[in-house]
Design brief:
Elements: H1 3-23, E1 58-65, E2 70-75, E3 78-85, E4 90-96, E5 100-106, E6 115-118, E7 121-127, E8 136-144, E9 146-153, E10 159-160, E11 164-167, E12 170-174, E13 180-186, E14 194-200, E15 206-210, E16 214-219, E17 224-229, E18 233-239
Parallel strand pairs: 1-3, 10-12
Antiparallel strand pairs: 2-9, 3-8, 4-7, 4-9, 5-6, 5-8, 11-18, 12-17, 13-16, 13-18, 14-15, 14-17
């Protein structure tokens, strides 16, 4: 069959079909009065934070022990593996001053990170605060750009006394022997918040925070180590 014959056949079939439709219109369907039903208000469901998963690249930083720190550096996101010798928490001092975006320090299997902050930044994060943490540890530095990190025992960070002020994440060894700490916080923007964790020699940790600016005094049995997570500015003052 030629191309012209195929086109003619299609047109004929279409024409015949149109004639059949015109000659025998379909029976009208009975009309129905529409009923209005109320649409239930959806119940919001809680979103589960994603679980951090190990990245393809890993930097081996070595061993962290009393008086001995370990270092690692990379460009872009990477795992950092290190070994601890002794019973102590680990402070990660991150230099991400040439980074962009948001820098996050977390670990495989965690839903909430150890901390995150807007780059560029230089800040400290506290990890391995549980007694049953394994000696061989892996953390994830999720950063855009070149960075370096130093891991050290929280017993080896310099002690400070009196009022301390700063911006962004920090870990402080507050040496004052007092029962209270005053915190004055100003957020960096509307999405910022403050989280404080204090670990003391009396084994009575204190956790507090706020999503708005505040000035408040907390019962804390110092001396101890305080981990601060925020993008904003803060002043921490030990109080008798």
């Amino acid at each position: 069959m030629t191309v012209g014959a195929v086109v003619a056949a299609v047109l004929l079939m279409t024409g015949c079909a149109q004639e059949m439709d015109d000659a025998a219109p379909p029976e009208p369907t009975a009309s129905r009065t529409p009923t209005h039903t109320s649409t239930p208000t959806p119940t919001p469901t809680a979103t589960t934070p994603p679980i951090a998963r190990a990245l393809p690249d890993t930097v081996d930083a070595g061993t962290v022990s009393s008086g001995v720190s370990a270092t690692a550096s990379a460009t872009g996101p990477s795992n950092v593996a290190f070994h601890t010798e002794g019973a102590f928490a680990v402070v990660i001092e991150l230099d991400c001053s040439a980074c962009t975006g948001t820098a996050t320090v977390t670990a495989p299997g965690r839903m909430s990170p150890f901390g995150r902050a807007t780059a560029p930044l230089k800040g400290s994060f506290l990890t391995a605060v549980m007694r049953d943490d394994a000696p061989d540890q892996t953390v994830i530095v999720d950063a855009q750009g070149p960075w370096s990190a130093t891991m050290r025992s929280w017993n080896d960070i310099p002690s400070v006394s009196g009022a301390q002020s700063g911006t962004g994440p920090a870990v402080l060894f507050l040496s004052d022997d007092v029962p209270h700490v005053s915190v004055d916080f100003t957020p960096a923007d509307a999405d910022d918040s403050f989280s404080g964790r204090v670990f003391t020699t009396s084994d009575q940790p204190k956790i507090f925070g706020n999503t708005e600016a505040f000035a408040e005094q907390f019962d804390v049995d110092l001396p101890g180590v305080m981990a601060i997570q925020t993008n904003g500015t803060w002043t921490v003052t030990p109080v008798p």
